[in-house]
């Protein structure tokens, strides 16, 4: 049985590509018809632009909206560009509020206006409502498909009311209790509903030590609350405490992943949603900026070396060793930097404990510096039969690993205080520091002691 | 109102540290008493070892278990080491199965046996059961607190049965329908239960197109299924289709974050759960290995340079420029590497599309190579009034950025095929390649053309 399952869950990407390159589109369509929206999204993410266009054509338009919502922003836009405003509108209006707004927000204004025009009055109103929420806030994440009840009715009445509804919105685990002005005053879990006696009043079975999310809260904070308190859903309220809607964990999970991936992608100068299969030109443009910045820092390092050109002229072998210390500093520094950036992202690093952290990283830099200074000194002493040279390299190594620890802690802290994303700018600045310190320490002492 | 909330949700870490350093332990204890286990865990993660020990002493023992479960492995172990087997046992037995086994697994065998001894027979049996599941599998993630019902009873009977129970396990959204041999045959959502007529049979209202998780499935796959299908909970079955338990999303969210963070941490040679505030010695030991590997590769690069010592001897300025090309190659390569590793982690990159990806990255390498080759040639031509030198540097730049694209795609693919974690080994190998190619391309052509 388990084998059967494993199969069912893995997407036959290779089969798809085979079928598509053989032009067996009927077969592809049949395969697609059996698939969940998430799986189709997965398939599109794993496809080359050409395949993507073909697959998209073959997807049943009834689930195109759902698929759109499951795509990363970059992939989604690449597909929206190929659709008519009418078909975009048609696909979008079937989505939940949060997904609806996400799709609408990801369009250029011109497209958005066209799409809006091709909707009926009611959908236009809804579109304008969801777009009125500020992006990346709890409000933009929420759905309005809440079930609200009054405190002064019995469980039995509610149960009969629900039976008339015949079905509940997806992932409904709580009914929300509101007063006549829609102020949120409590919640009743379905579990409580089915376990308490039908004659009881809602006010007797409802939980009043509830947790609510203000509409203005940033989505990252919402995500960390869901993570910390193991929520499945949570109600969203406005400043007056009026119930606006609810956020479900499935939307939060996406944010948790994005936030977690953000640091890694940024540290390489990529944006979180970077599409692995984006067209060459797009990717080239996006990445060249980062390379340009790095070229500038590399030239800076080269300039520092050039200050010691006469030294290098006399002792060519220094040039051979000149890359070792900077590279070690870069690695040690990026270890510290990564740890601090991660610590900041999950909220472990703050002003209060940063001094201790600085002390720790300096100590580690010193100890690791010692270890590898001694080792490199030995290697060079043997290689070139020159103890002095080894000593100079060892000293530079020690200096650079200590400053790497220092830079690895201070740079992200300073950047954060300046409201610059440490993950994005941190690594460039760090390597610049470790390069320059490394070269100065090595060539500087060499000039002083060896000439 | 929203202001109130914001406050309630943020942990006053600074206050804590102040109170602790002032020795106001009663105050600290009062603050801790009002806090959720997750918040205390957060506080411990953000504390220095000394503060941690103090805070832990002040935590009410009744929630120590819950806190332990919310800690990262490294932090948890540092605390377990300070506890007596008896208190560990006392804290652990109150946990859900999955948390119970996680805590037990994280202890050294010797400690585990001691802890086991200090439990009563029943808990010992439970411990042995949960430990019998293979680590990192669905079975190790699941709880056994499922509510099972038979297909041949009416909704009304079940509702009365639930009322007798008076409460349901946390995050119960489905009742599971099993036959006499406990084979999983369907599920009934609480929503269905409250919306369908009491006279109906469970067999009429249960869903039979259910999805189940085999006990042997790896936790990462479980996580990606929860993500793809927006599950809140999912039943776990054995090979015979017998219901073993259920997995809830709150445990899956942790795995999603860990998996997402894994790549970033590994790329810097840190392990995912690395404790930001671990003692200096531990961190030094853990990181020195990585530095050692890098020193070796740096020496390798130095050795390559040394092959051109005579050239460097004649043209000292080459030494000044020698760092530029390798550094650019390193950056370009790590962009590709990061993208591919991320793509592999989320399942977008596979054998089928890797050839296309290779072509794309080569093209990007070529284009970016051209851009920056031209620019650097200009800079150097102006700096040194030497067109030839600029040309040599430009050629080396182009060569190295192309090979960086090549290496960025091929290295992770090969490592994965060899079952080596690309995130861990990838960046070292990549920089070695880009260093060596860069130096050869630059100094090699220089030797050939400029002497």
TrEMBL record, chains A, B:
**Residue ranges of domain CBS in the record:** 142-204, 206-264
- Say which domain of life the source belongs to: Bacteria
List the subcellular locations: Cell membrane; Membrane
Locate the transmembrane regions by residue number. Answer: 289-309, 315-341, 362-383, 389-411, 423-450
The cross-references to InterPro entries, in alphabetical order and at most eight, read:
CBS_dom, CBS_dom_sf, Mg_transptr_MgtE_intracell_dom, MgtE_N_sf, MgtE_transporter, SLC41_membr_dom, SLC41_membr_dom_sf
The protein's predominant localisation is: membrane
Query: Short name of one Pfam family for this protein?
Result: MgtE
Q: Which UniProt keywords apply?
A: CBS domain, Cell membrane, Magnesium, Membrane, Metal-binding, Transmembrane, Transmembrane helix, Transport
Q: Topology relative to the membrane, per the entry?
A: Multi-pass membrane protein
A Gene Ontology molecular function term of the record = magnesium ion transmembrane transporter activity
One annotated Gene Ontology cellular component of this protein: plasma membrane
PANTHER family per record: MAGNESIUM TRANSPORTER MGTE (PTHR43773)
- Quote the NCBIfam families the UniProt record gives: mgtE
Oligomer and partners? Homodimer.
State what this protein does.
Acts as a magnesium transporter.
Q: Which family does it belong to?
A: Belongs to the SLC41A transporter family.
UniProt-recorded name of the protein = Magnesium transporter MgtE
């Amino acid at each position: 049985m388990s084998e059967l399952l494993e199969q069912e869950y893995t997407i036959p990407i290779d089969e798809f590509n085979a079928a598509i390159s053989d032009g067996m589109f009927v077969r592809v369509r049949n395969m697609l018809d059996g698939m969940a929206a998430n799986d189709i999204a997965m398939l599109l993410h794993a496809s080359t632009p050409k395949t993507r266009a073909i697959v998209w054509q073959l997807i049943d338009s009834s689930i195109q909206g759902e698929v759109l919502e499951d795509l990363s922003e970059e992939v989604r836009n690449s597909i929206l560009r190929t659709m008519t405003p009418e078909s975009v509108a048609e696909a979008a209006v079937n989505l939940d509020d949060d997904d609806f707004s996400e799709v609408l927000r990801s369009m250029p204004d011109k497209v958005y206006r066209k799409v809006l025009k091709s909707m009926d009055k009611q959908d236009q109103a809804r579109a304008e409502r969801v777009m009125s929420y500020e992006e990346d806030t709890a409000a933009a994440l929420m759905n309005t498909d809440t079930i609200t009840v009054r405190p002064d009715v019995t469980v039995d009445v509610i149960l009969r009311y629900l039976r008339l509804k015949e079905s509940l919105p997806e992932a409904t685990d709580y009914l929300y209790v509101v007063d006549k002005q829609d102020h949120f005053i409590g919640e009743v879990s379905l579990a409580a509903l089915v376990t308490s006696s039908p004659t009881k009043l809602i006010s007797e079975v409802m939980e009043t030590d509830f947790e609510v999310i203000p509409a203005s809260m940033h989505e990252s904070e919402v995500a960390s609350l869901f993570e910390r308190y193991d929520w499945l859903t949570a109600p969203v309220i406005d400043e007056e405490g009026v119930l606006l809607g609810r956020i479900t964990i499935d939307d939060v999970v996406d944010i948790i992943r994005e936030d977690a991936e953000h640091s890694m992608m940024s540290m390489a100068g990529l944006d979180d949603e970077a599409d692995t299969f984006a067209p060459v030109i797009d990717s080239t443009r996006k990445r060249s900026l980062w390379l340009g910045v790095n070229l500038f820092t590399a030239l800076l390092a080269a300039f520092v070396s050039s200050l010691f050109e006469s030294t290098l002229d006399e002792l060519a072998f220094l040039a051979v060793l000149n890359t070792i210390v900077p590279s070690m500093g870069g690695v040690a520094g990026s270890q510290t930097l990564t740890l601090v950036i991660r610590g900041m992202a999950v909220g472990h690093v703050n002003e209060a404990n940063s001094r201790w952290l600085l002390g720790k990283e300096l100590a580690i830099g010193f100890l690791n510096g010692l270890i590898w200074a001694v080792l490199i000194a030995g290697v060079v002493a043997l290689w070139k039969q020159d103890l002095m040279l080894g000593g100079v390299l060892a000293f530079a190594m020690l200096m650079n690993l200590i400053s790497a620890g220092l830079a690895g802690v201070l740079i992200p802290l300073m950047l954060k205080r300046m409201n610059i994303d440490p993950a994005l700018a941190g690594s460039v600045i760090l390597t610049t520091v470790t390069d320059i310190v490394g070269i100065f320490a090595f060539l500087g002492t060499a000039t002083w002691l060896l000439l």
